[in-house]
Write a structure and sequence with these properties.
Layout (H helix, E strand, L loop, with lengths): L2 E7 L6 E10 L2 E10 H6 L1 H8 L22 H18 L3 E8 L2 E9 L15 E2 L4 H14 L9 H4 L8 H6 L17 H5 L5 H7 L17 H14 L7 H17 L8 H6 L7 E3 L5 E3 L2 H4 L6 H4 L2 E2 L1 H12 L13 H7 L4 E2 L5 E2 L4 E5 L2 E9 L4 E7 L4 E7 L5 H15 L6 H18 L8 H4 L4 E5 L3 E8 L2 E5 L4 E8 L5 E6 L8 E6 L5 E5 L6 E5 L2
Antiparallel strand pairs: 1-2, 2-3, 4-5, 4-15, 6-9, 7-8, 10-11, 11-12, 12-13, 13-14, 14-15, 16-17, 16-23, 17-18, 18-19, 19-20, 20-21, 21-22, 22-23
Length: 548
């Protein structure tokens, strides 16, 4: 589709939404109309996406490259890719990035772009360490496969038989959830990422225990629901299957990853240790997104809050090490040094689709299984507070790429590099460019419609100043100092700007600084007239009550 328009219509019932979507192709608008209960739509967003993404313009030519061999990566292709990367980095104002490309069992290209730190101007190299976020998940599932190989567990072993401390809110499911189910994104447990941002006092054991309080959005296996806590617990379950006690989950998991994945593959620089990262001068500074669309450096201590969910997304790596990992995946579990890391059979299990994400994409075990114009494409991206990663490969074409960047929420950039490589090697036009441009235009258009108050109304906010608490997120403090309105949590501090409604009055305040720039904060009195804060909207909203 060449262009899209989404219209949300007024409703007399705030619990019901009416939405129209028009998508243009060669002068014809294809229209999708939806009416839904707001709560249901939020809980079943993935299922809605399966329907919406399934519509195609029948007049469009569908390209199928099944069986087509890619071109060998040569200087012509890499020169075009280099030019494309430089163009996109300038467009998105990205500090630094690195890539590695593998083909036919070899690393055929690797390069760094931009800088590790915008102040020191140190260049990024393929050896520069960056966090890879959720791309860690596929390494955790590979490690799980090695334990299945060793007979320590099976994919269908009930979790509670390995970890008696495990429990979810449904007692029946507590007994039946298996090792496979922990990493399939199909359990019905949704995201609970605020807990990872606001609260600095989490432990691996806390992460496991928190699952007992999470609501299931859908029945088991019905819909794609992405949970970092579920995957993290899956990694810790695997560690216990290897003999690690519940009291040493974090360190035990790290040791299993080191001995079963990093050492045999030869990933000598990959680490979960922030101390090791700080000691290595070739590490990138993380940059978080601000409300005005720029990047700001954030401290490593903020990234370290992700450590309790290490199996789901807290690894530091570089393009060099990730290339070795790609070669191991493409080598059916055989590392480039000739060592067998995991059996081909159990590696293949991680690639098996488990639940639909869209009309074409499925989630496996730590992987997204889709296709590039008919050729199987296996991938996973990762986002932290200041880094973005993307790793993808075409197993039938023996081709793969990893893209790392030290900026928050750069998924479109990373994926654009990946897809451009595949387009070049299969002599295809730059189709993904339309998607990337549309995403940027949509973001710019949305930003242009937002109206902010010029100043903070001290009379309106003063009754809300002070400390607040939330059982899951901990304490926050609202303060007004020299006209600057701020919120301080245990892990970060942000400015707040008044968001104006159509009536010209402030309806909420938006976080201005990383890691949650753009998050809304509503100030209101509860039924008893007590000041409360509501962070976020809809089902993910969290309420803070004032501390006496």
């Amino acid at each position: 589709f060449e262009k899209a328009l989404v219209v949300n219509y007024k409703s007399n019932d705030p619990k019901i939404i009416y939405q129209g979507v028009a998508q243009l192709f060669k002068g014809t608008a294809y229209v999708l109309l939806a009416k839904a209960d707001l709560t249901t739509a939020q809980k079943r967003a993935a299922q809605v996406n399966v329907i919406a993404s399934g519509f195609k313009a029948l007049a469009a030519t569908q390209i199928n490259l099944t069986g087509t061999k890619p071109l060998p990566i040569d200087a012509t292709i890499t020169a075009q890719l280099d030019s494309y990367i430089a163009e996109k980095m300038a467009l998105y104002k990205i500090p630094g990035a690195s890539i590695a490309i593998v083909q036919d069992g070899k690393v055929v290209y690797s390069k760094g772009y931009g800088v590790r730190d915008t102040t020191r101007k140190d260049p990024v190299t393929p050896a520069t360490l960056m966090m890879i976020g959720s791309t860690t998940k596929s390494m955790t599932t590979m490690m799980m496969g090695t334990l299945v190989d060793d007979g320590k567990m099976t994919w269908d072993t009930p979790v509670s038989t390995i970890m008696p401390q495990f429990a979810v809110s449904d007692p029946a499911l507590t007994k039946t959830i298996t090792v496979r189910n922990m990493v399939c994104a199909c359990s019905g447990v949704p995201r609970h990422d605020f807990e990872l941002v606001f609260n600095a006092n989490q432990t691996a054991q806390n992460i496991v225990k928190s699952l007992a309080d999470f609501q299931f959005f859908t029945k088991f296996g019905e819909a794609f629901q992405y949970s970092n806590q579920m995957v993290a617990t899956g990694g810790y379950v695997a560690a216990m299957a290897a003999g690690v006690p519940f009291t040493d989950l974090y360190n035990g998991y790290l040791k299993q990853m080191q001995s079963r994945i990093f050492d045999p593959i030869g990933m000598s620089k990959s680490t979960f240790s922030f101390a090791a990262v700080k000691a290595n001068p070739d590490h990138a500074t993380p940059y978080g997104a601000t409300l005005d669309g720029t990047f700001a450096a954030i401290p490593l201590s903020l990234e370290q809050t992700l450590s309790p969910v290490a199996p789901a997304g807290a690894l530091w790596s570089n393009a060099d090490d990730m290339a070795k990992y790609l070669l191991t995946e493409l080598g059916d579990g055989m590392a480039p040094n000739g060592k067998r890391v995991v059996s081909a059979a159990n590696l293949a299990v991680t690639w098996q689709p488990q639940v639909a994400i869209s009309a074409t994409a499925k989630y496996g075990l730590g992987w997204i299984i889709d296709d590039f114009k008919g050729i199987k494409e296996i991938s996973h991206g990762g986002n932290t507070f200041g880094f973005t990663s993307d790793l993808a490969f075409l197993p039938d074409a023996n081709l793969g790429i990893v893209v790392l960047s030290n900026g928050q929420a750069l998924t479109v950039f990373n994926e654009a590099i990946r897809e451009r490589l595949f387009e070049l090697t299969f002599k295809q036009p730059p189709d993904f460019e339309k998607t990337a441009n549309a995403a940027l235009a949509q973001a710019q258009q949305a930003a242009s419609t937002i109206k902010f108050a010029d100043t903070i109304d001290s009379v309106a906010v003063t009754p809300f100043l002070g400390s607040y608490s939330n059982a899951a997120l901990g304490k926050v403090t609202l303060a007004l100092t020299a006209g600057k309105f701020t919120l301080k949590a245990s892990t970060f501090q942000t400015g707040l700007r008044g968001l104006l409604g159509k009536d010209g009055k402030i309806k909420a305040y938006l976080f201005t600084d990383p890691p949650l720039a753009g998050l809304s904060l509503t100030l209101q009195n509860d039924a008893d007239g007590k000041p409360t804060l509501i962070a976020g909207t809809g089902l993910v909203a969290q309420t803070f009550t004032k501390v006496k």
